[in-house]
């Protein structure tokens, strides 16, 4: 009997998109199961209160509960490192592993690994965030030598409301950003219903879509030695190794 691989996924409490999308993505891998733990996140902003939601103590408490299910990897399916600093996710992974003994990954670290694998230097970003949060993300990538050549954001700060952005609206956003000729476009929020758009969009417009729910899965599978290319129908990123 083939060993069951368990992926533990850390989830913002008000996120309604990432769990069904994650389960749908891994459904073609019968030996891979996803399990979720939530911690409180209700708004995305640059205020002290909003940033405090991502204090490592909150995330580590959720990781410890996930560890009770004995997952093979624990991954943070959230994009807060985009505006708080990539090093925050690096440190978080170290702390999760130190606390639980389980390897760790994140949506943003996996995204950045994919960008590096393909030497992408021209990026497009679609997000639901406010202007100031979006510009923080843009500046982070600029510091890493990656130009954000096109972006769309929706000026929403309530985390629950991100999932209310219709996929048809996201498709239009992707088309708008594609006009600036990026090498890849990121749907930069794990509470956007966007991952399922990748195959059709890539086929029609020849631009890779790096959705952050998908990058979370890709990074987690790599951590446990499962070949992501077994996943079909969710975009080209799963063929990248």
Rg is: 16 Å
Strand order of the largest sheet: 2-1-3-4
Total of DSSP H or I helical runs spanning 4+ residues: 11
Number of strands: 8
CATH architecture of the largest domain: 3-Layer(aba) Sandwich
Mean pLDDT: 97
CATH topology of the largest domain: Rossmann fold
Number of domains: 2
Biggest sheet descriptor: 4 strands, parallel
Overall SS class: alpha/beta
- What is the rounded distance between the termini? 27 Å
Order of helices and strands: EHEHHEHHEHEHEHHEHEH
Unreliable stretches (pLDDT < 50, length at least 5) are none
Shape: globular
Beta-strand percentage range:
15-25%
CATH class group of the largest domain: Alpha Beta
What is the oligomeric state here? single chain
Layout of strands and helices, then pairs:
Blueprint: E1 5-12, H1 18-26, E2 32-39, H2 48-52, H3 56-67, E3 73-76, H4 81-84, H5 86-100, E4 104-106, H6 107-117, E5 122-126, H7 131-143, E6 147-152, H8 159-162, H9 167-178, E7 184-187, H10 198-205, E8 208-211, H11 212-223
Parallel strand pairs: 1-2, 1-3, 3-4, 5-6, 5-7, 7-8
Helix pairs in contact: 3-5, 6-11
